[in-house]
């Protein structure tokens, strides 16, 4: 099943389990923007919310919003997100709060997503890093 407009389509095959909060694939046409991983680093290079994955998620998404804006894109243009977390149990335990923050920024827009637990991120205080791909019309 394909949902979306002629520039971006999100694909959710009916033969697979119904996705909740993501799409299985995205097909695009337009200008592709590759978003570098964003952590909870503030403008001064310090991690916001040390030890608090919810606060770090909010800052990482806010940072992504700035990058999207300066690239001429919005959250609605995002077709793929990768989440890297250092503690998947902490992510799962806070999924409701993380989901609420996600909806503040993305609304009901659910691109293709991947969540991966990693041993550590570049900044030792970072608990989450989010990278993505956006596509805008030419």
In short:
The chain is an alpha+beta fold. It contains three helices and seven strands, in the order ββββαβααββ.
Q: CA-to-CA gap between the ends?
A: 25 Å
Strand content: 25-35%
Strand order of the largest sheet: 4-7-5-6
Q: Mind telling me the CATH class?
A: Alpha Beta
What about the largest sheet? 4 strands, mixed
Total of domains: 1
The topology string of helices and strands comes to: EEEEHEHHEE
Would you identify the CATH architecture? 2-Layer Sandwich
Helix content: 25-40%
Any idea what the shape is?
globular
Mean pLDDT: 90
Total DSSP helices: 3
CATH topology: 60s Ribosomal Protein L30, Chain: A
- Class inferred from helices and paired strands: alpha+beta
**Rg, alpha carbons:** 15 Å
* Number of beta-strand segments: 7
Low-confidence stretches: 1-6
According to CATH, the homologous superfamily is RutC-like
Description:
- This protein has 138 residues and is α+β, with helices and mostly antiparallel strands.
- It has a single domain (30-136), classed as RutC-like (60s Ribosomal Protein L30, Chain: A), CATH 3.30.1330.
- 26% of the residues lie in helices and 30% in strands.
- The chain is built from three helices and seven strands.
- It has helices spanning 53-70, 88-93, 95-106; strands at 2-4, 8-11, 25-28, 31-38, 78-85, 112-117, 128-136.
- Strands 4-7-5-6 form a four-stranded mixed sheet. It has a three-stranded antiparallel sheet with strand order 1-2-3, with no helix packed on it.
- Helix 1 (53-70) runs parallel beside helix 3 (95-106).
- The longest helix has 18 residues, at 53-70.
- It is globular and about 40 Å long.
